[in-house]
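Re: [help] complex structure
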Amino acid sequence: MAVAARKASRSDAAPSAAKSRTARKTQSQAPKKGAAGFTKEQDLFAYREMLLIRRFEEKAGQMYGMGLIGGFCHLYIGQEAVVVGMQMATKEGDQVITGYRDHGHMLACGMDSKGVMAELTGRRGGYSKGKGGSMHMFSKEKHFYGGHGIVGAQVSLGTGIAFANRYRKNGNVCLTYFGDGAANQGQVYESFNMAELWKLPVVFVIENNRYAMGTSVSRASAQTDFSKRGASFNIPGEQVDGMDVRAVMAAGERAIEWARSGKGPYILEMQTYRYRGHSMSDPAKYRSKDEVQRMREEHDPIEQVRRRLIDQWKLSEDELKAVDAKVREIVNEAAEFATNDPEPDVTELYTDILK
Ligand SMILES: Cc1ncc(C[n+]2csc(CCOP(=O)(O)OP(=O)(O)O)c2C)c(N)n1
Ligand SMILES: [Mg+2]
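Output below.
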């Protein structure tokens, strides 16, 4: 927690690109109404946010292929509705912490796409001055606490952030995301116990994308209903269609309200799917192409909203194209910045380290 906070203020101070933010709304300023059905504004907002994540990730994948991004790179494509729906249920001040599949979470928190992309390419305008890479970015300003490469580590850190919220009586809730694989880690259950015992304001969001690297849920988990994982600690939970941004927001509102009102933690199992490999180096031999194709064709979270915008809200193809063009422009600008920004100076080798 202390380390995360230190890194957060450091990286906030660093990137000039991250400071020069586009005028994009963050989700805590997003249009709100009852959650079951979205208004036109909510659908448009969700569409734009999810599309930004998708296009950003596609571009990151291309840049990785071109050798511009080194190290690990885990793409979030397919899972966009989870983080966008959850952010739409938050209020300003609520924190987010997650694992290594984190670019979507950063963008959804309102972090600048230039600063994120420049960190991927290891440039000085990146959120960690080009020294952190894909899995290690933070923004205290946007309440994003990483970016963690150790599977499950963020669960105890997120519980610690929630403890700080309770101690400071600031009314904030910490959204702590982790995967189906991470859900089998021991420290998760130590955290669950303390979170319920002390009624900490934390929502545990389990992103069940059906695989942990190449291992399917049914091969690795004795209890595959992750919403029940808090049962022995009396933590309530529910399973959510994580491909439907409206269902995510509705569940997010219930869970956040529960946590904020002092009732303690809440578990949301988001049933979702990642279209790409675990990381860029995954040949994905453990699942069939048909399975991926079926999910894309029948459950794509962005396509669902796109259809509503056309059928229900009568948006024209031209109006949608204008949104797409704007998103592409933001992503292209980020890629250009991340390609041309200089690398960190060698003197930076000895800064921002624990001595
Ligand atoms: C403590 C630890 N053990 C193993 C690994 C290697 N590892 C990286 S990702 C991963 C799978 C995690 O899967 P899941 O929690 O389902 O998240 P997803 O990748 O599906 O988002 C493993 C085993 C690690 N990084 N840290
Ligand atoms: Mg997984």
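The chain has one domain: 2-13+39-339.
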